[in-house]
Specification:
This protein is mainly alpha-helical. It has one domain (12-129). Helices cover 59% and strands 0% of the residues. The protein contains nine helices and no strands. The protein has helices at residues 12-20, 40-45, 49-52, 55-65, 67-77, 82-85, 95-106, 108-118, 121-129. It is globular.
Amino acid sequence: MEDSGPAPALDAKDVLAAAERSPWAVAAPGERHWPDGEFLDVALSAVRPEEREGYIERLEAFVEEHRDRLEELLRVYGPGSRPASHGRYALVGQPETLVVLERMEAAPFLLRGQWEKDLETVFLDDLEFA
């Protein structure tokens, strides 16, 4: 089998735009807790090279497949909820969180390993709990 060269890079802006097309899973911009993209690089680093081609389509399929669960997650833990008012679950409602959740399902150990290198695990732990 021939090597076709390096895997295509994922454009974070394109991935974020795809996530924002899911209004049932993402809070309105004025209600979000973090600036866009703060956690996106770590989540995208957990996308294996062989998964990069067609990743946006897979993310969109994941979001549609889990629509009910994502709506409930946003409603129960998102901005304006009681848990969010205590400063927890800050990532719920962020568009990059859809990538984090997709990676939690597709590559949980890789995501956690990448996350632990760069970020506080409390954010990931909260998402796993929710």
